[in-house]
Design brief:
Length: 367
């Protein structure tokens, strides 16, 4: 549920889960020797873009402070640029100016990706014809604890009136071609929350430059890159029988999402039952069939995922759980009493689901 941007994002995420799950399942149905890699790459790329738009919408409605892990800039930036190059028209060239400083940012990977992706998308949309987008990275001498990111384009440029309103929510000069006016607004919202700032300079007919300053992590070294990004190959390399012997109860009020998650788990060898509500889940848990894992949506009408997990623990069910949500809510206050559980952001790929399950160390196949 939820209104405004959060409600739109919820509906949008439901669609994306179906798209992504259908794409992941397609190779399993193809005759041997036939490849659908190119089609599936396109599906995955579209899904990744849709995820980022969803995050743009939710970032406008979510003002909570989240705990952040330091993110190493160089590997994330190179991987993101590689994936963005594939999505740009041939007439547009994206260049990453070397060298990229070997530093960590005080931002989560998702936040960093969203900022860069939206700035590059905005620059691409400004191109009337062939052109170049340059990404420049530097640490200013006058601000050694900040990283400066410049996104320069050779597009149409903006006059003073547009420049003055460019960060307003829903303000767009491209409504007729599907512009939603959320990209730069979400960038500014994120940059503000991270303790940075953003500025823009532009000249009509010459191009624009958007500059973002972001704080470096207090201790640059030692952070490990986190997973993510469009990676169809990785998803297809997941071992087919990785969850053999596992019995899973899937709970989601959206039937299509439930079906997709069920198909992903079954493709990995698990036995799965799917139900549409918390009370139904409690009935199943009380039955004779033992389950070794609970996978539940968080936002459900009536009994939500947190309430379901509380009720399951109160009834003596200690099975590990995965709490899945498109909004990545914070842990509930009574998290310690609800463990073992892990959170998984929706929409997710098959390899991300498997990784999350394997991360639940207490997990053991049902007897």
């Amino acid at each position: 549920g939820g209104g405004g941007g959060a409600g739109i994002a919820h509906d949008f995420n439901t669609l994306v889960v179906s798209i992504r799950g259908g794409g992941a399942g397609a190779p399993l149905q193809l005759p041997r020797g036939r490849s659908a890699v190119s089609q599936l790459s396109a599906v995955e790329l579209a899904a990744e873009r849709a995820v980022r738009l969803t995050r743009s919408m939710t970032s406008l409605t979510d003002s909570r402070e989240q705990p952040r892990s330091p993110t190493p800039l160089a590997p994330v930036l190179r991987e993101l640029v590689d994936s963005m190059v594939d999505g740009l028209p041939d007439r547009v060239t994206l260049k990453l100016e070397a060298p990229v400083p070997d530093v960590c940012l005080a931002a989560d990977r998702v936040e960093l990706e969203q900022i860069i992706f939206n700035l590059v998308s905005n620059a691409n949309e400004a191109m009337l014809d062939a052109g170049t987008i340059d990404l420049g990275i530097s640490i200013p001498d006058e601000e050694p604890r900040m990283l400066r990111l410049d996104v320069r384009d050779t597009g149409a440029g903006m006059g003073p009136d547009v420049l003055a309103r460019m960060f307003e929510p829903f303000y767009t000069t491209r409504a007729e071609v599907g512009g939603h006016g959320l990209g730069l607004t979400s960038v500014q919202s994120l940059v503000d929350r991270l303790g940075g700032r953003i500025s823009a300079a532009s000249e009509v007919g010459v191009g624009s430059c958007l500059s973002v300053w972001l704080p470096l992590s207090p201790g640059d070294g030692g952070a490990r890159p986190s997973g993510g990004g469009a990676d169809v190959a990785k998803a297809s390399e997941v071992k087919q029988g990785a969850l053999e012997g596992l019995s899973v109860l899937v709970v989601d009020d959206e039937a299509e999402v439930r079906d997709v998650v069920t198909a992903l788990l079954e493709s990995l060898g698990a036995r799965v039952e799917g139900v549409g509500s918390g009370p139904e889940a409690l009935e199943s848990l009380a039955g004779s069939q033992p389950y070794s894992l609970l996978v539940t949506d968080v936002r459900m009408p009536g009994m939500d995922g947190h309430a379901l997990l509380r009720a399951a623990r109160a009834a003596g069910h200690g099975l590990p759980a995965i709490l899945s949500s498109g909004f990545d809510p914070a842990d509930p206050e009574d998290a310690d009493e609800l463990r073992p559980f892990r959170r998984l952001a929706k929409p997710f790929r098959r390899d991300q689901l498997l990784q999350c399950i394997q991360g639940l160390q207490e997990l053991a196949p049902a007897g």
